[in-house]
Amino acid sequence: MRIIIGGAGRVGIELARALNAEEYDVVIMDQDSRAVSNAQGLDCLVIHGDITSREKLIEAGIVEASVFVAATPSDEHNLIACSIADHAHTLGESKHSLTNICRLRNKDYIDEYKKGNLKNWASVHYIVNPLSGAIQRLNAGLRSTDIEEVIPFDDEAYVIELEVGETAHTVTNRTLGELAEDLIHGMPSVVGLKRKNQRSIIPTDETQLERGDRVAVATIGLDSFNPALILFGHELTYFPDEPKVVIVGATEIGAQMAAEWLIHGAWVTVLERDLHRANELAGSRIGANPNLEIIHGDHLDRTILTEIGIDKHDVAVSALDNDHENIAAVLLASDMGVDRTGLMLRDADLVKVTQRMGISFAVDRRRVAVDNMLTHIHEKLSGRFALLSEVPNVVGLTFEVTEKAKFAGKTVGEAQFPESLKLAFIKRLNLAGEWETTKPTDDHVLLENDLVILFCLQDKIPDAEKRFRV
Question: Can you say how many angstroms the Cα of residue 406 is from the centroid of all Cα atoms in its chain?
Answer without folding.
Answer: 31
